Amino acid sequence: MRSLDVSTPAPGLRLVARLHVDLCRLASAICRPS
């Protein structure tokens, strides 16, 4: 059984990328008050 982790250099890279996206959204929400 192959996992999608093969396409990524590191197993934790996907988690880091997802966290980065969340931080970007949070920063965007803070910088851009509604």
Overall description:
56% of the residues lie in helices and 0% in strands. It has 34 residues and is mainly alpha-helical. The mean pLDDT is 78. The protein starts with 12 loop residues before the first helix and ends with a helix.
State the secondary-structure class. Answer: mainly alpha
Quote the beta fraction.
under 5%
Number of strands: 0
Reading the helices and strands in chain order gives H
Number of helices: 1
Oligomeric state, counting identical vs distinct chains:
single chain
Helical content band = 55-70%
Q: Regions with pLDDT < 50 over 5+ consecutive residues?
A: none
What is Rg?
14 Å
Note the overall shape: rod-shaped
The largest β sheet comes out as: none
Distance between the termini: 47 Å
Q: Mean pLDDT score, rounded? A: 78
Protein name: Leader peptide
Secondary-structure blueprint:
Blueprint: H1 13-31
Summary?
The chain has 34 residues and is mainly α. Helices cover 56% and strands 0% of the residues.
Features:
single chain; 34 residues; mainly alpha; 1 helix; 0% strand; 56% helix
